[in-house]
Design goal:
- By secondary structure, the protein is α/β, with parallel strands linked by helices.
- Helices cover about 40% and strands about 15% of the residues.
- It contains 16 helices and 13 strands.
- A 6-stranded mixed sheet has the order 4-5-13-10-11-12, with helices on both faces.
- Strand 10, helix 10 and strand 11 form a beta-alpha-beta unit.
- Helix 4 runs parallel beside helix 5.
Length: about 450
Amino acid sequence: MRNDVWLECIRCGHRYPHDEVIYRCADCGGLLDVEHDLSPLKARSGGEWKKLFETRAHSSEWPYASGVWGKWEWVAPHIAPENIVSLGEGYTPLLRAPRLGEKIGLSHLWIKQCGISHTGSFKDLGMTVLISHVRQLISQGVPIRAVACASSGDTSAALAAYAAAAGIPAIVFLPQGKVSTAQLAQPISHGALVLGLDTDFDGCMRIVQEITADKEIYLANSMNPLRIEGQKTVGIEIVQQLGWEVPDWIVIPAGNLGNISALGRGLLMMKELGLIDRLPRLVAAQAERANPLYLSYLTGFKDYRPVKAKPTLASAIRIGAPVSYERAVKALRAFDGIVEQASEDELANAAALADRAGLYACPQTGVALAAAAKLAANGTIRPDQRVVVISTAHGLKFTDFKVGYQRNTLAEVKSRYPNLPIELPADVNAVRNAIQNHLDAEASMSSMDKKKGKPAGSP
Protein backbone atom coordinates (compact mmCIF):
# COMPACT_ATOMS: atom_id res chain seq x y z
CA MET A 1 0.00 0.00 0.00
CA ARG A 2 1.39 3.40 -1.02
CA ASN A 3 0.10 6.86 -0.25
CA ASP A 4 1.12 10.19 -1.72
CA VAL A 5 3.28 12.50 0.39
CA TRP A 6 4.28 16.10 -0.14
CA LEU A 7 5.75 19.06 1.73
CA GLU A 8 3.30 21.73 2.89
CA CYS A 9 3.83 25.14 4.50
CA ILE A 10 2.32 25.31 7.98
CA ARG A 11 1.43 28.99 7.44
CA CYS A 12 0.11 29.45 3.90
CA GLY A 13 -0.45 25.85 2.79
CA HIS A 14 1.78 26.06 -0.29
CA ARG A 15 2.75 22.56 -1.44
CA TYR A 16 6.10 21.29 -2.69
CA PRO A 17 7.19 17.88 -4.01
CA HIS A 18 8.55 15.61 -1.28
CA ASP A 19 11.87 15.28 -3.11
CA GLU A 20 12.55 19.02 -3.37
CA VAL A 21 15.49 20.18 -1.24
CA ILE A 22 13.73 22.98 0.64
CA TYR A 23 13.27 23.74 4.35
CA ARG A 24 11.11 26.87 4.39
CA CYS A 25 8.27 28.07 2.20
CA ALA A 26 9.52 30.17 -0.72
CA ASP A 27 6.35 32.31 -0.50
CA CYS A 28 6.06 33.18 3.21
CA GLY A 29 9.10 31.68 4.96
CA GLY A 30 7.02 29.28 7.03
CA LEU A 31 8.23 25.85 8.11
CA LEU A 32 7.19 22.83 6.10
CA ASP A 33 5.53 19.61 7.23
CA VAL A 34 5.34 16.28 5.46
CA GLU A 35 1.69 15.65 4.66
CA HIS A 36 0.11 12.34 3.67
CA ASP A 37 -2.88 11.45 1.56
CA LEU A 38 -4.69 9.33 4.13
CA SER A 39 -7.29 7.94 1.73
CA PRO A 40 -5.28 4.80 0.85
CA LEU A 41 -4.47 4.27 4.53
CA LYS A 42 -8.17 4.30 5.41
CA ALA A 43 -8.61 1.19 3.29
CA ARG A 44 -7.51 -0.64 6.44
CA SER A 45 -9.59 -0.28 9.59
CA GLY A 46 -8.09 0.88 12.87
CA GLY A 47 -8.24 -2.71 14.11
CA GLU A 48 -6.40 -3.97 11.04
CA TRP A 49 -3.63 -1.40 11.52
CA LYS A 50 -3.27 -2.47 15.15
CA LYS A 51 -2.96 -6.11 14.15
CA LEU A 52 -0.38 -5.29 11.47
CA PHE A 53 1.70 -3.15 13.84
CA GLU A 54 1.59 -5.84 16.52
CA THR A 55 2.78 -8.47 14.02
CA ARG A 56 5.65 -6.28 12.86
CA ALA A 57 6.71 -5.51 16.42
CA HIS A 58 7.60 -9.18 16.84
CA SER A 59 9.17 -9.62 13.41
CA SER A 60 12.81 -9.82 12.36
CA GLU A 61 11.88 -9.11 8.73
CA TRP A 62 13.68 -6.10 7.24
CA PRO A 63 12.93 -3.29 7.94
CA TYR A 64 10.13 -3.97 10.42
CA ALA A 65 12.45 -4.75 13.35
CA SER A 66 12.74 -0.96 13.59
CA GLY A 67 10.04 0.77 15.60
CA VAL A 68 10.02 3.51 12.97
CA TRP A 69 9.93 1.35 9.85
CA GLY A 70 7.31 -0.90 11.41
CA LYS A 71 5.07 2.13 10.65
CA TRP A 72 6.53 2.54 7.14
CA GLU A 73 3.28 3.49 5.39
CA TRP A 74 2.63 6.21 7.97
CA VAL A 75 6.14 7.63 7.89
CA ALA A 76 7.90 7.59 4.52
CA PRO A 77 6.22 5.32 1.98
CA HIS A 78 8.14 7.04 -0.84
CA ILE A 79 11.46 5.55 0.31
CA ALA A 80 12.46 2.34 -1.42
CA PRO A 81 13.49 -0.52 0.91
CA GLU A 82 17.03 -0.62 -0.49
CA ASN A 83 17.54 3.01 0.61
CA ILE A 84 16.40 2.55 4.21
CA VAL A 85 19.19 3.11 6.75
CA SER A 86 18.24 1.58 10.09
CA LEU A 87 20.26 0.88 13.24
CA GLY A 88 17.50 -0.80 15.23
CA GLU A 89 15.84 2.36 16.50
CA GLY A 90 12.51 2.43 18.32
CA TYR A 91 10.61 -0.20 20.31
CA THR A 92 12.24 1.28 23.41
CA PRO A 93 10.89 0.20 26.81
CA LEU A 94 7.85 1.80 28.41
CA LEU A 95 8.39 1.23 32.12
CA ARG A 96 5.92 1.42 34.97
CA ALA A 97 7.61 3.47 37.72
CA PRO A 98 5.53 2.96 40.88
CA ARG A 99 8.22 3.90 43.43
CA LEU A 100 9.07 7.12 41.64
CA GLY A 101 5.40 7.85 41.02
CA GLU A 102 4.66 7.45 44.72
CA LYS A 103 7.37 9.95 45.58
CA ILE A 104 6.08 12.65 43.24
CA GLY A 105 2.36 12.10 43.80
CA LEU A 106 1.49 10.12 40.66
CA SER A 107 0.01 6.68 41.20
CA HIS A 108 0.18 5.70 37.52
CA LEU A 109 3.52 6.93 36.24
CA TRP A 110 5.25 5.44 33.20
CA ILE A 111 8.65 6.32 31.73
CA LYS A 112 9.26 5.95 27.98
CA GLN A 113 12.96 5.10 27.82
CA CYS A 114 13.91 6.66 24.47
CA GLY A 115 17.52 6.83 25.62
CA ILE A 116 17.78 3.06 25.24
CA SER A 117 18.45 3.43 21.55
CA HIS A 118 21.46 3.02 19.29
CA THR A 119 23.07 6.42 20.00
CA GLY A 120 21.38 6.86 23.36
CA SER A 121 18.62 9.35 22.52
CA PHE A 122 15.26 9.75 20.79
CA LYS A 123 17.03 11.58 17.94
CA ASP A 124 17.59 8.20 16.26
CA LEU A 125 13.87 8.05 15.44
CA GLY A 126 14.06 11.06 13.16
CA MET A 127 17.55 10.50 11.81
CA THR A 128 16.78 7.08 10.34
CA VAL A 129 14.11 8.72 8.16
CA LEU A 130 16.18 11.76 7.20
CA ILE A 131 19.26 9.78 6.17
CA SER A 132 17.11 7.25 4.31
CA HIS A 133 15.46 10.15 2.47
CA VAL A 134 18.88 11.56 1.56
CA ARG A 135 19.95 8.17 0.28
CA GLN A 136 16.78 8.04 -1.81
CA LEU A 137 17.48 11.51 -3.24
CA ILE A 138 21.06 10.55 -4.12
CA SER A 139 19.78 7.42 -5.89
CA GLN A 140 17.55 9.70 -7.98
CA GLY A 141 20.53 11.80 -9.02
CA VAL A 142 20.16 14.72 -6.60
CA PRO A 143 23.70 16.09 -6.05
CA ILE A 144 24.03 15.91 -2.25
CA ARG A 145 27.63 15.80 -1.04
CA ALA A 146 27.11 15.85 2.76
CA VAL A 147 24.58 16.23 5.57
CA ALA A 148 25.02 18.85 8.29
CA CYS A 149 23.47 19.82 11.62
CA ALA A 150 23.83 22.20 14.52
CA SER A 151 23.59 20.32 17.80
CA SER A 152 23.59 20.63 21.54
CA GLY A 153 24.84 17.03 21.66
CA ASP A 154 22.40 14.26 20.83
CA THR A 155 21.51 15.25 17.27
CA SER A 156 25.18 15.21 16.30
CA ALA A 157 25.56 11.65 17.58
CA ALA A 158 22.53 10.41 15.66
CA LEU A 159 23.50 12.20 12.46
CA ALA A 160 27.09 10.95 12.58
CA ALA A 161 26.06 7.33 13.23
CA TYR A 162 23.38 7.11 10.54
CA ALA A 163 25.46 9.00 8.00
CA ALA A 164 28.36 6.61 8.67
CA ALA A 165 26.05 3.64 8.16
CA ALA A 166 24.93 5.13 4.84
CA GLY A 167 28.43 6.13 3.71
CA ILE A 168 27.46 9.82 3.50
CA PRO A 169 29.80 12.54 4.87
CA ALA A 170 28.50 14.34 7.96
CA ILE A 171 29.30 17.84 9.24
CA VAL A 172 28.50 18.76 12.83
CA PHE A 173 28.40 22.25 14.36
CA LEU A 174 28.70 22.18 18.17
CA PRO A 175 28.82 25.06 20.68
CA GLN A 176 32.40 24.88 21.91
CA GLY A 177 32.69 23.63 25.49
CA LYS A 178 28.92 23.31 25.96
CA VAL A 179 28.36 19.58 25.33
CA SER A 180 29.38 16.67 27.51
CA THR A 181 32.51 14.67 26.78
CA ALA A 182 30.40 11.59 26.08
CA GLN A 183 28.31 13.49 23.54
CA LEU A 184 31.39 14.93 21.84
CA ALA A 185 32.98 11.48 21.59
CA GLN A 186 30.13 10.06 19.52
CA PRO A 187 30.33 12.14 16.31
CA ILE A 188 34.14 12.09 16.46
CA SER A 189 34.11 8.29 16.68
CA HIS A 190 31.77 7.99 13.68
CA GLY A 191 34.09 10.07 11.49
CA ALA A 192 32.03 13.26 11.19
CA LEU A 193 33.68 16.61 10.57
CA VAL A 194 33.13 18.24 13.97
CA LEU A 195 33.34 22.03 14.12
CA GLY A 196 33.32 23.56 17.62
CA LEU A 197 32.10 27.15 17.30
CA ASP A 198 32.62 29.89 19.85
CA THR A 199 28.89 30.47 20.30
CA ASP A 200 25.79 28.75 21.69
CA PHE A 201 23.38 26.37 19.94
CA ASP A 202 21.38 29.24 18.48
CA GLY A 203 24.56 30.64 16.96
CA CYS A 204 25.41 27.23 15.50
CA MET A 205 21.90 27.02 14.07
CA ARG A 206 22.30 30.33 12.29
CA ILE A 207 25.57 29.17 10.71
CA VAL A 208 24.27 25.79 9.57
CA GLN A 209 21.28 27.40 7.87
CA GLU A 210 23.64 29.61 5.89
CA ILE A 211 25.88 26.67 4.98
CA THR A 212 22.96 24.51 3.84
CA ALA A 213 21.72 27.24 1.53
CA ASP A 214 24.09 25.34 -0.74
CA LYS A 215 21.77 22.47 -1.67
CA GLU A 216 24.68 20.06 -1.98
CA ILE A 217 24.89 20.13 1.83
CA TYR A 218 21.63 18.80 3.25
CA LEU A 219 20.21 20.20 6.50
CA ALA A 220 19.60 17.56 9.18
CA ASN A 221 18.10 19.67 11.98
CA SER A 222 14.47 19.26 13.00
CA MET A 223 13.36 22.29 11.00
CA ASN A 224 13.64 19.67 8.27
CA PRO A 225 10.25 17.90 8.41
CA LEU A 226 11.70 14.49 7.55
CA ARG A 227 13.06 14.34 11.12
CA ILE A 228 9.59 15.01 12.50
CA GLU A 229 8.15 12.06 10.58
CA GLY A 230 10.41 9.58 12.37
CA GLN A 231 9.98 11.18 15.77
CA LYS A 232 6.19 11.02 15.55
CA THR A 233 6.34 7.25 16.03
CA VAL A 234 7.12 7.65 19.74
CA GLY A 235 3.50 8.59 20.47
CA ILE A 236 2.21 5.68 18.40
CA GLU A 237 4.58 3.35 20.22
CA ILE A 238 3.47 4.56 23.66
CA VAL A 239 -0.19 3.83 22.91
CA GLN A 240 0.69 0.46 21.39
CA GLN A 241 2.70 -0.50 24.49
CA LEU A 242 -0.23 0.46 26.71
CA GLY A 243 -2.44 -2.06 24.91
CA TRP A 244 -3.83 0.62 22.58
CA GLU A 245 -5.09 2.66 25.52
CA VAL A 246 -4.38 6.40 25.52
CA PRO A 247 -2.66 7.85 28.60
CA ASP A 248 -4.13 10.94 30.19
CA TRP A 249 -0.92 12.95 29.98
CA ILE A 250 2.39 12.80 28.10
CA VAL A 251 5.21 15.01 29.39
CA ILE A 252 8.24 15.71 27.19
CA PRO A 253 11.34 17.91 27.55
CA ALA A 254 11.23 20.81 25.08
CA GLY A 255 14.16 22.62 23.48
CA ASN A 256 14.07 23.22 19.72
CA LEU A 257 10.42 22.05 19.90
CA GLY A 258 10.44 19.54 17.07
CA ASN A 259 9.77 16.74 19.55
CA ILE A 260 6.43 17.92 20.92
CA SER A 261 5.11 18.75 17.46
CA ALA A 262 6.20 15.30 16.27
CA LEU A 263 4.48 13.67 19.23
CA GLY A 264 1.27 15.48 18.35
CA ARG A 265 1.42 14.51 14.68
CA GLY A 266 1.66 10.81 15.43
CA LEU A 267 -1.24 10.85 17.87
CA LEU A 268 -3.47 12.88 15.55
CA MET A 269 -2.77 10.42 12.75
CA MET A 270 -3.81 7.56 15.02
CA LYS A 271 -7.10 9.25 15.80
CA GLU A 272 -7.87 10.08 12.18
CA LEU A 273 -7.20 6.50 11.10
CA GLY A 274 -9.38 5.05 13.84
CA LEU A 275 -6.82 3.47 16.17
CA ILE A 276 -7.79 5.70 19.12
CA ASP A 277 -10.91 7.69 19.94
CA ARG A 278 -9.43 10.37 22.21
CA LEU A 279 -6.23 12.35 22.67
CA PRO A 280 -4.01 12.78 25.72
CA ARG A 281 -3.03 16.18 27.07
CA LEU A 282 0.56 17.19 26.37
CA VAL A 283 3.06 18.98 28.59
CA ALA A 284 6.14 20.70 27.16
CA ALA A 285 8.75 20.96 29.92
CA GLN A 286 11.42 23.65 29.65
CA ALA A 287 14.44 24.54 31.73
CA GLU A 288 13.88 27.84 33.52
CA ARG A 289 17.12 29.16 32.07
CA ALA A 290 16.05 28.46 28.47
CA ASN A 291 12.29 29.02 28.47
CA PRO A 292 10.96 31.01 25.48
CA LEU A 293 8.00 28.66 24.96
CA TYR A 294 7.03 28.89 28.64
CA LEU A 295 7.14 32.70 28.58
CA SER A 296 4.98 32.71 25.45
CA TYR A 297 2.55 30.24 27.04
CA LEU A 298 2.02 32.68 29.91
CA THR A 299 0.64 35.16 27.34
CA GLY A 300 -1.62 32.55 25.72
CA PHE A 301 0.94 32.36 22.89
CA LYS A 302 0.04 35.93 21.90
CA ASP A 303 3.59 37.13 22.47
CA TYR A 304 6.74 35.26 21.52
CA ARG A 305 10.29 36.49 21.87
CA PRO A 306 13.46 34.44 21.61
CA VAL A 307 15.62 34.61 24.73
CA LYS A 308 19.33 34.41 25.33
CA ALA A 309 19.54 30.91 26.75
CA LYS A 310 21.57 30.81 29.95
CA PRO A 311 23.81 27.94 31.03
CA THR A 312 21.69 25.05 32.28
CA LEU A 313 22.38 21.51 33.42
CA ALA A 314 19.82 20.46 30.80
CA SER A 315 22.30 21.34 28.08
CA ALA A 316 20.47 19.47 25.32
CA ILE A 317 17.53 21.89 25.60
CA ARG A 318 19.58 25.05 26.12
CA ILE A 319 17.90 26.77 23.17
CA GLY A 320 16.64 30.35 23.23
CA ALA A 321 15.33 30.63 19.65
CA PRO A 322 13.59 27.30 18.91
CA VAL A 323 13.09 26.70 15.21
CA SER A 324 9.85 24.72 15.61
CA TYR A 325 8.00 27.25 17.80
CA GLU A 326 5.04 27.53 15.39
CA ARG A 327 4.75 23.76 15.12
CA ALA A 328 4.81 23.40 18.92
CA VAL A 329 2.08 25.99 19.46
CA LYS A 330 -0.11 24.24 16.89
CA ALA A 331 0.34 20.93 18.72
CA LEU A 332 -0.26 22.36 22.18
CA ARG A 333 -3.49 24.01 21.08
CA ALA A 334 -4.71 20.78 19.48
CA PHE A 335 -4.04 18.81 22.68
CA ASP A 336 -5.11 21.34 25.31
CA GLY A 337 -1.46 21.39 26.24
CA ILE A 338 0.49 23.00 29.04
CA VAL A 339 4.00 24.40 29.26
CA GLU A 340 5.82 24.13 32.58
CA GLN A 341 9.38 24.98 33.59
CA ALA A 342 11.90 23.66 36.10
CA SER A 343 14.74 25.37 37.94
CA GLU A 344 18.23 23.91 38.12
CA ASP A 345 17.54 22.70 41.66
CA GLU A 346 14.23 21.13 40.67
CA LEU A 347 15.55 19.29 37.61
CA ALA A 348 18.67 17.98 39.36
CA ASN A 349 16.80 16.65 42.37
CA ALA A 350 14.05 15.17 40.19
CA ALA A 351 16.69 13.26 38.20
CA ALA A 352 18.32 12.08 41.43
CA LEU A 353 14.97 10.93 42.79
CA ALA A 354 14.43 8.94 39.60
CA ASP A 355 17.86 7.37 40.01
CA ARG A 356 16.95 6.35 43.56
CA ALA A 357 13.99 4.50 42.04
CA GLY A 358 16.25 2.52 39.73
CA LEU A 359 16.29 4.77 36.67
CA TYR A 360 19.27 6.74 35.40
CA ALA A 361 17.77 10.00 34.21
CA CYS A 362 19.46 12.57 32.02
CA PRO A 363 19.03 16.21 33.09
CA GLN A 364 16.45 16.83 30.35
CA THR A 365 14.35 14.00 31.75
CA GLY A 366 14.82 15.66 35.13
CA VAL A 367 13.12 18.75 33.67
CA ALA A 368 10.14 16.65 32.53
CA LEU A 369 9.88 14.83 35.88
CA ALA A 370 10.07 18.08 37.82
CA ALA A 371 7.33 19.55 35.62
CA ALA A 372 5.13 16.50 36.18
CA ALA A 373 5.70 16.71 39.95
CA LYS A 374 4.77 20.41 39.99
CA LEU A 375 1.58 19.78 38.03
CA ALA A 376 0.69 16.92 40.38
CA ALA A 377 1.34 19.13 43.42
CA ASN A 378 -0.93 21.93 42.17
CA GLY A 379 -3.72 19.52 41.22
CA THR A 380 -3.51 19.96 37.44
CA ILE A 381 -2.62 16.28 37.08
CA ARG A 382 -4.78 14.11 39.33
CA PRO A 383 -3.14 11.24 41.26
CA ASP A 384 -5.31 8.63 39.51
CA GLN A 385 -4.46 9.75 35.98
CA ARG A 386 -2.05 7.80 33.80
CA VAL A 387 1.05 9.87 33.02
CA VAL A 388 3.87 9.04 30.60
CA VAL A 389 7.13 10.97 30.93
CA ILE A 390 9.39 10.71 27.90
CA SER A 391 13.02 10.17 28.84
CA THR A 392 14.87 11.59 25.87
CA ALA A 393 18.47 10.45 26.44
CA HIS A 394 20.55 7.98 28.42
CA GLY A 395 21.98 9.23 31.71
CA LEU A 396 25.41 7.81 30.82
CA LYS A 397 25.85 10.76 28.44
CA PHE A 398 25.88 13.09 31.45
CA THR A 399 28.36 11.58 33.88
CA ASP A 400 29.73 14.98 34.95
CA PHE A 401 26.19 16.01 35.91
CA LYS A 402 25.76 12.84 37.97
CA VAL A 403 29.11 13.18 39.76
CA GLY A 404 28.59 16.88 40.39
CA TYR A 405 25.22 16.17 41.97
CA GLN A 406 26.65 13.57 44.36
CA ARG A 407 29.45 15.96 45.33
CA ASN A 408 26.95 18.81 45.78
CA THR A 409 28.98 21.05 43.46
CA LEU A 410 26.33 21.93 40.85
CA ALA A 411 25.52 25.62 40.60
CA GLU A 412 22.10 26.62 41.99
CA VAL A 413 21.48 23.06 43.25
CA LYS A 414 21.19 21.81 46.81
CA SER A 415 21.61 18.04 46.49
CA ARG A 416 18.91 16.36 48.60
CA TYR A 417 19.98 12.80 47.84
CA PRO A 418 23.80 12.71 47.72
CA ASN A 419 25.45 9.32 48.06
CA LEU A 420 29.24 9.39 47.99
CA PRO A 421 31.44 6.34 48.62
CA ILE A 422 32.63 5.83 52.19
CA GLU A 423 36.35 5.16 52.45
CA LEU A 424 37.28 2.67 55.17
CA PRO A 425 40.24 0.63 56.33
CA ALA A 426 40.14 -3.03 55.30
CA ASP A 427 38.64 -3.98 58.66
CA VAL A 428 35.52 -6.12 58.99
CA ASN A 429 34.27 -4.30 62.10
CA ALA A 430 34.52 -0.92 60.39
CA VAL A 431 32.58 -2.35 57.44
CA ARG A 432 29.88 -3.81 59.72
CA ASN A 433 29.50 -0.47 61.51
CA ALA A 434 29.19 1.42 58.24
CA ILE A 435 26.52 -1.00 56.98
CA GLN A 436 24.56 -0.81 60.24
CA ASN A 437 24.68 3.00 60.31
CA HIS A 438 23.47 3.15 56.73
CA LEU A 439 20.56 0.74 57.28
CA ASP A 440 19.55 2.54 60.49
CA ALA A 441 19.56 5.88 58.68
CA GLU A 442 17.44 4.49 55.84
CA ALA A 443 14.92 3.01 58.28
CA SER A 444 14.76 6.28 60.23
CA MET A 445 14.11 8.31 57.08
CA SER A 446 11.35 5.93 55.98
CA SER A 447 9.73 6.10 59.42
CA MET A 448 9.85 9.90 59.51
CA ASP A 449 8.28 10.13 56.07
CA LYS A 450 5.41 7.85 57.12
CA LYS A 451 4.77 9.89 60.27
CA LYS A 452 4.64 13.10 58.20
CA GLY A 453 2.13 11.45 55.89
CA LYS A 454 4.22 11.76 52.74
CA PRO A 455 5.83 9.17 50.51
CA ALA A 456 9.25 7.91 51.44
CA GLY A 457 12.03 9.98 49.97
CA SER A 458 9.91 13.07 49.28
CA PRO A 459 11.61 16.45 49.67
